[in-house]
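Page header: ASSEMBLY MODEL / three components / 973 residues total.
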Amino acid sequence: MTNLVEIRDLRVAFDGVPVLHGIDLDVARGEALGLVGESGCGKSVTWLAALGLLPGKASVSGRVTLEQTDLSGAPRDRLERVRGGRIAMIFQDPSSALNPVLKVGRQLVEALRLHRGLTGAAAKAEALRLMDLVGIPDARGRFTLYPHEFSGGQCQRIMIAMALAGEPDLLIADEPTTALDATIQAQILDLLARLRREMNMAMVFISHDLGAVAQVCERVCVMYAGRIVEEGTVSTLFDRPRHPYTRGLFDALPRLHGPRGALTPIPGTVPDPRNLPAGCAFAPRCNRAQGFCQRNRPDLLRQRDGRALACAYPLPEDDAAPDATAPRMTAHQEGCPT
Amino acid sequence: MTALLEARDLVRVYQGRKGLFGAAAPVRAVDGISLTVNAGETLGIVGESGSGKSTLGRMLLGVDPAQGGQVLFKGQPMPAAATPEWRALRADMQMVYQDPLAALDRRLTIAAQIREPLEIHRTGTAADRTARVAQLMESVGLRADQADRYPHELSGGQRQRVVIARALATSPDLLVCDEPVSALDVSIQAQVVNLLRDLQAREGLGMVFISHDLKVVRNLCDRVAVMYLGRIVEEGPSERLFADPQHPYTRALISSVPEPGRALDSRVILQGEPPNPARRPRGCAFHPRCSLATDVCRDQVPQLARVAPGQTAACHHCPVTPDVRAA
Amino acid sequence: MIRFVSIRLLRALITVLAVMTFAFVVLRMSGDPAEVLLGPDVPQSVIDAFRAEWGLDAPLWQQYLSYLGAIFTGDFGVSMRDRSPALELVLERVPATLMLTIPALLLKLGIGIPAGVYAALHRDSAVDRGVILLAILGFTIPSFVLGLVLVLIFAVTLGVLPSGGMGTWQHAILPAITISIGGIGILARFSRSAMIEVLGQPYIRTASAKGVSWRDVVRGHALPNAAVPIVTIVGFMVGSLIAGAVVVETIFSWPGIGRLLIVSVSNRDLAVVQCILLLIAAVMVVSNLIVDLLYGWLDPRLRAQPAH
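Prediction written out in full:
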């Protein structure tokens, strides 16, 4: 199966400070990929950069291709046809992501005009159909309302309807449920999963919520400090995380079941992008790190079970313990090649 | 033994406005809430936006005056806000908010901010205060060399530690935390939750922990109260309430928490919009979203009643449907 | 809506009343019109007669009440100098002032807003820095300095424009420019910051993400939002259409309201001064009212929410 989107060596720097250090990422047609990590790890920046949505002070390099089309350095009008057309995006805070002074109907119709050439009554009919589809009750009566007249959950539904307007092949959902209440989060997750199935659309689900990712995604990438540190299917990664950071994220989570007790936090904090450690960026917080990790940065390498892993001393596979003490993969010497 | 904090039938009504030109409509943010916090106990308050949980938090501290009902602190009625007696009481009760950056003065070093309550309440000599600040910083896990830093030079987790250290400066008996870890990343959140857990065990303070994050609440709290539209709909020991929720809303809330390893389809997804306090449904406020709702729910407000030892729920159907489990 | 407008009208009325009272008190505390108008050497009997004639011998509160009463019946009094009705004197000067302030307002809008928007769209570029610098210069240079410099350059040195007085349309050019420069600077700064604020909002990114061209993002999504704060400043400028030219009219000997005000104040011509202040206050109040109504039109969040 060919990939829908291929990202190769994507790098981003803000005012000369690198925040994304060479991301390689593929999205297959129709698949649901999760992107997990804490704030500042670059999970959102990756896709904003890919679609050319970063502000001017950001410098972007690398290659992004959508099937045969090269998006990196593409002329503005080609990017504009892709945005919202082939690749749509929804964001974290739905209430501020809709234009407060424009009626929601008009915002929907704008997307339909741009990507499907619909105007007038046809556009309105299709917009109403989309509002129905995402579960806005009384779409006709609320077509001429403004975003502030909808709740946060409904605003996110309208954002989703707007994203569907261009019948995209890929939907990037950037923390789409983070700002919403628990019961509404569940509704939106459910809606996204259903729409993806029905429309056979690929989805990239960016979230810090491991639980939400597990529920809607098939494959997941864990990012730390601007790099992918572990990648694999949800079942491989979540059942048997091997990167100490992935494992740390799980251990830090309080549980809804089982014993209550002290949590296991990851010590320390995320490194300052202006002052990254020379070796593995996670080494200062890692309980498995050796001297080797302080000096050398591990590559993201494919493992036997299909996952990719960037760690010199990963957690052992269930059956393989002995080689866990020695560096088992090639690593870059000192420093980042940025 | 008198409880550390007791609230009796608290009511708070806001004059809500419908836009700039609209007529004012009263919003019952807190509508008849009674609860008790014992010394050394952590009470969790969970609910969605609009449930009134933050308003309740401020009322428990006497920051927002109660329009009905009464707050008793160590058996004594809460003095009116901004009176000298009320101010003196601040040393015994403190609050921690969600956004540490907004709670801190960006022009003061963190040592100066932790010291401030000691100055206000004239605790000890200058040397005592300096020693106390050092001790507080150590107890919340801040390094001594960070004393002269400013808030913007710290990470989010460190800032929240400063806020907590400042709240603990006067050795309060009660700490009210309103979403103290919601703005923090998972790995840091666990650090702060553990810190609160340790402090509570060590200092024996009573704590009210307001949060929408059920997983954190379950981990940290001894007892939990679930709020819906200004009322408590269920209350009970943490362990019990999460294992065997009785109120349909509590069940849906717990079921809505995504957990790795649980498929989407097995969850009870609550339909309908989050409640709007300005338009409170008649009868049980939850009935428009409830799958069990019958005529009695549309008509009569259910009262909290015992459903299990130490556990109460306000639902007309709770006693007759004891065993429909969500998860 | 009716409630909203009536509240605003009531507030406007109170503002006007406050201005009238203030003017009344200050004018009477700051000097005796009799002495100013009649000169220092007239006998006391003449002064007393003058005071009695104009009602200046009554207690202050009586004067105040009769003044208010007269205004509410539409009587603005007569000038102490030539006994012509004050309102007529004032209104006959209005067109001259508007001949300067309206072109100046158009200049402010036409140059200030586009310059600010352009600077915001090219933030941190050389043009942006240039706009900021010129804007600061524009509103920090006092208009009397600017006016004199312009006269020196265009009238004295180059000799292309008249240095003062009223006659052809060329006479209006220098004073109108002098009035507009400060406002251009203020509007440029304000439009720039309003636009920068709006461009950083999530809905701008949403519009780009759905494939709207940058040009349409700016026109269709950013400008309507930036308009709200800009309208506040523009409203203030409209409010100063009458009062904004006092200094410049004096420099350029332009026979408008401002000149009349200066002359009347120095003569303690009470009725005329009060009439001018009343007019200024009324224009300010009306423009504020219009701004408030515009807010609702521009930003639906400030409108009444229909029950849904």
